[in-house]
Design brief:
Layout: H1 3-15, H2 17-25, E1 28-29, H3 39-58, H4 68-77, H5 82-109, H6 118-140, H7 145-159, H8 165-173, H9 180-212, H10 229-240, E2 242-243, H11 244-269, H12 295-303, H13 306-330, H14 342-364, H15 376-379, H16 385-396, H17 399-402, H18 419-422, H19 425-434, H20 448-459
Antiparallel strand pairs: 1-2
């Protein structure tokens, strides 16, 4: 007996590996479970990749506001394979979000959430949101202008939540403003809390897969009846089941390997997102833009009517999460085939089109202040010098970044093309000098003459 075999036998005798793990690997699964079932395991492979690359990055990353940016510069530019490691971590996060989304769509379209797999769906919903939370918290850890200002915008949106918005924003940032404590908090969320919760829910999710079995491919007319399903499923496995390893697992292994290779390829060919510049409150000429997987959410918030956004920001996520969580309880029996459930397919198409449209809009028309807008005074001729000075101030003082007039400017704040019809000069002065919850106070940044010119200009917009 070779030395290696002796060591393997000793390890197996002491751990009981072959008695516990191998039966799980060879447990029977329904036949016909083909390529549509590989996305869940590929998501798990991506998560393992994120853990491995995250540990590698943490060996060099310094979670301090004084040195975080410089340490990432060192990782990207000087550390051996550091740029590739950052790239793998970034594209691994993207792959994880795409795959978990496709996996959820597959489960919904095939109604695999029905009896007895309701808890598998619920744990999957938690894993979906934890994956998004991992991506969001990772962006701030770059500690560059883009990451920091994107987090500030997120905190501002969170602060709009009625009643508890301020408390939620403080919980996110660790205080009233972003700073060293925010970086430390996001680092803890990203490295400790969320990965631990993902490990917990993944373990629970896999346990449920073993306990309740992999859902069989749906067949039109074959209904799920909770009273008879378990006996039917067990009889089907005894009659037609195939061992998970190797009959079904080879597809998971092959597809996951291709995904990992694609991620590594993107990391080598494209590389990680470039760092912009260290965060500096005095630098306002930056265009904060979240990573692509957060763009649809931010674009949706930016496009909401101002009068409704606070309520929709609060109630929208609650309604969405509750709808996902109660789905398996209001529809846990009956037809599973997508051919007999056209509304389910239509709903998925609508969601995919909506997310894709928001992604396109968010990428094309920034949800953030429009720093690239051209001065209004360049495209509009004013006969009154006072109006021209006001229009120039409207741009120079940053008003035009957030407010649009005649098609020029950002959309973060209300449109001001006709503000003179509804607001009188005194109201405009009070607003400009004192600001509001979502607008800074300009009282200390304008001379009396500048304030008068700006108010005159806005009052003329009728």
């Amino acid at each position: 007996m070779s030395l290696l075999r002796k060591i393997a036998n000793w390890f197996d005798d002491r751990t009981g590996f072959s008695e516990t793990i191998l039966p799980v690997m060879r447990h029977p699964v329904p036949p016909g479970a083909k390529w549509a079932y590989v996305f869940g395991s590929a998501t798990l492979f991506c998560f393992v990749l994120q853990v491995v690359t995250g540990v590698g990055l943490s060996l060099l990353y310094q979670p301090s506001s004084d040195s975080a940016f410089q340490s990432l510069q060192f990782i990207t530019s000087q550390a051996a394979f550091g740029k590739v490691l950052r790239g793998i971590h970034f594209f691994g996060a993207s792959g994880m979000i795409i795959l978990v989304g496709i996996h959820m769509i597959r489960v919904y379209i095939t109604a695999s959430y029905k009896y007895p797999r309701e808890m598998s769906w619920i744990s999957g919903v938690f894993l979906l949101f934890l994956t998004i939370a991992m991506g969001f918290t990772g962006q701030l850890l770059r500690w560059d202008s883009n990451g920091v200002w994107s987090s500030v915008v997120a905190a501002q949106n969170l602060g709009r939540v009625p009643l508890i918005g301020t408390a939620l924003a403080r919980l996110l940032l660790g205080g009233d403003t972003i700073g060293a404590q925010s970086l430390s908090r996001f680092f803890s969320f990203h490295v400790f809390l969320f990965p631990a919760l993902i490990f917990l829910f993944v373990g629970f999710h896999l346990y449920l897969v073993i306990r309740n079995g992999i859902s069989e491919p749906p067949k039109a007319g074959r209904l799920v009846d909770p009273k008879t399903y378990r006996k039917w499923y067990d009889d089907m496995l005894k009659r037609e089941g195939v061992p998970f390893w190797p009959n079904a697992a080879w597809r998971d292994a092959l597809f996951s390997s291709l995904v990992i290779l694609a991620i590594v390829g993107f990391a080598i060919l494209i590389g990680p997102p470039p760092l912009t510049q260290p965060p500096d409150p005095s630098i306002i000429n930056t265009s904060p833009e979240p990573d692509w997987y957060m763009l649809p959410i931010f674009a949706l918030f930016a496009l909401l009517p101002p009068a409704t956004e606070s309520y929709l920001i609060f109630f929208g996520p609650i309604v969405g999460v509750l709808a996902l969580l109660v789905l398996p309880f209001i529809s846990n029996r009956g037809e599973r085939s997508p051919i007999r459930r056209p509304w389910a397919v239509f709903g998925v198409v609508c969601v995919v089109v909506a997310v894709g449209s928001l992604l396109y809009i968010g990428n094309r028309a920034p949800w953030s202040p429009q720093f690239e807008t051209k001065p209004l005074a360049q495209s509009v001729r004013f006969r009154d010098p006072k109006l021209e000075r006001g229009a120039s101030l409207f741009y120079k003082k940053g008003c035009q970044y957030c407010h649009r007039i005649d098609g020029h400017g950002g959309i973060t704040g209300p449109e001001l093309s006709r503000i003179g019809r509804t607001w009188n000069p005194d109201q405009l002065k009070v607003q400009i000098v004192n600001g509001s919850d979502e607008m800074p106070a300009y009282g200390g940044m304008l001379t009396k003459a500048e304030l008068n010119d700006l108010v005159t200009f806005l009052s003329s917009r009728k």
